[in-house]
Amino acid sequence: MNINPNNIKTLAVFGCGGTGSHVAAGLARLEKAINELGGKFPRVIICDPDVVEQPNVGRQLFSQDDVGVNKATAMAQRINMAYGLQWEASTSDIKCDLTMVCVDSRKARHRIYKGRTCKDWFIDCGNDSSTGQVVFGGGDIPLPHQTYRKLIDRRHKEAGPSCSLAEALESQELFINQAVATYALQLVWSMFRYGKLNCRGYFINLNGSTQPIKLQ
Hints:
single chain; 6 helices; alpha/beta
């Protein structure tokens, strides 16, 4: 599938937790690489209404000093300072040309996808304890939630917030978020570096094999 990266003027990361914080950190490196290669990268907005809590430190890319600070603000400020970029932070959902969905609840996904059409492009990132998925949708490809209805089906039970890092690690492996983020970033890299996608995404399994998702 051919992609014209010049058509992507804005890019949003929705959710700055376990997966989203890793996506944001990798996206900053990716932007610097594309700029060094002479390419243009879109305006980036990090969206998350939540604040950093103590259990987030260690599993998500936040420090002790970030506790009590809005996640989007903390991440954007750190990346701008480290890389000399001008990312923005938002506590509400905004519409962008490419949205990377990294939220951890079906309720939040349902809100994000509501009213969206295939004119909008999405990369949906999600995971369970040791497995995950990265799914692209938009254009001639159905949106992720249209193909995989489970992404927004709130009848499925979801884990509640953890009171500690140790409790969080009882429900999922430490590096599953990082693995999902890496494959999501690979899709973005292919779009901006090569102007195409060779697959629609990936099904990831830390205890088995990772499988690409065919475009058709």
